[in-house]
User: What shape does this take?
Amino acid sequence: MSVLRPEIAQSWQRLESCGLDPAACIDVGPVVETDPGTRLRRAAGPVLTALEGHLHGSRFALVLADRETRLVDIRFGSPELEPVLQSVGVVPGQLFTEQVSGTNSVATVAELRRGIAVVGAEHYLESLKRFACYGVPIRDPLTGRHAGVLDITCLTADASPLLRPFLLGAAQQIADGMLAEARGSHRRVLAAFEAARVRAAGPLVAFGPDLVLTNDAAADLLQPVDHAGLQALRHGRPGPVRTEVELASGARMLARVEPVGGGGFLVELERPPRPTAVRAAGPAADRDWFADLRPRILRYRAEQANVLVLGEPGTGRTTVAAELAGAGPVTVLAGAQATVAGTLVPLAEADPAAGGGTLLVEDAHLLAPAVAAHLGREVDRRGVRLVLTAGVDGLPVGEAAAFGARCPVRLELPTVRSRRDRVPALAGALLRERAGGTVRFTTGALRTLAAHDWPGNLRELATVVGYVAGRRSAGDLTEADLPPGYREGPREPVPGALWQAERDAIVRCLESCGGNKVHAARRLGISRTTLYRRIRELHIDPEALRERPAWVPQA
Assistant: This one.
């Protein structure tokens, strides 16, 4: 065939690097039932119906995809085209990312965020080469973010250069409808707030698209950083939420979150029914990520208990282990660097003459079997106390597990994504440490930080804050000041703990495979196309896992 256009050639290169087979068929099952009540669907419905009337009798199909590149609405000018498209996987609810469907004017438009035509042989998958299509992105006029793709598809024999202007006007109409919908959402949020304000005995906050309303009690109690923390409570939770939250002041409150509709929700705050200690306010208190664990840390240190500290990278395993070890004689050993060479690792620093002392082994899951066995014997012989750190999977079966069995206490550290409501306060405290009081995050920037997954946890967050603090000496820090890759605002994730558990399992597998999706699919026992689909649905970036730690910001 002729030389590919640059944007098509780049798409093909992306697909070759991820291992998609051009002869593969689009995996059509299971598809996800889509929600007709989203702002995009409500705005697009009347526009698609009008276009469908214009296309009546023609062999064209209109395809609407949401911002996750899932097909949410398909209209046909002629019924004869419907089974043809269904046979190649163009069905409502199907994820249509490039990793699943190759180069086409839905997936590639979502990647490039601009309109593009893909005709015949330019499609990467053989099954799509008989089609011609043109797609344009839809941008949310309220937030400026990518909202979806509108596509028109036909057989190559019916392709026309008039497809582009036909779609551009329609995409603008949908965007205008989304703006009107947002204004309607504001009205609904205001009405719900007024109704709740009459009965609310305490602080009340209402959130809508780019809108925050508070009563006097909430205005006196809440700081801007608290707004971002409360908004994070809705991340991944479509229904009512009742949970305890900690405010920037140190006060703990019971929050009742009720959805309003159109993306809005109400938050009522009240004192918890049981008395709760209020921690001291200020930057140092905001930074105390382990406040909930501190009573246990102090108790285990006083009891001189043997403790195994578990957690993902960046969750503060080293910090907590050092606190557990205390100020007495401590020998620190890095599991990844321990080697057996002549005389095995000595424990002289642990004051063997007097006995006792603490052996702190970081990354104990990386200990060589012979070293683990030797350390176990030394610990038993000298009466040394143990504090170990390891990954979330604990210690591997064998000598390392036997060594770790000497720790009856296990302390698992929380991930940052499991405490999104505390990210704004922590980010603000870290910024004050690095830049003093001359700069501050806007509420929008804090909300964006709270929505990020933070695979590198506390270390990643501190790195990003340090990056931002070094680039500006005064003023407000907005989303635009965040490093590339951290500026995308809150998304609508698949809700529930199973979503997070599956994502964590796939990320760990990809990390162990160096980002190689073919090997990861084999190890997980699923097909490559299924893995590609789940990678997109779960917002995973395999290239970041292949090339660099996901938490390192890029200039």
Notes: Residues 149 and 554 are 28 Å apart (CA to CA). The first strand starts at residue 60 and ends at 66. The chain has a mean pLDDT of 80.
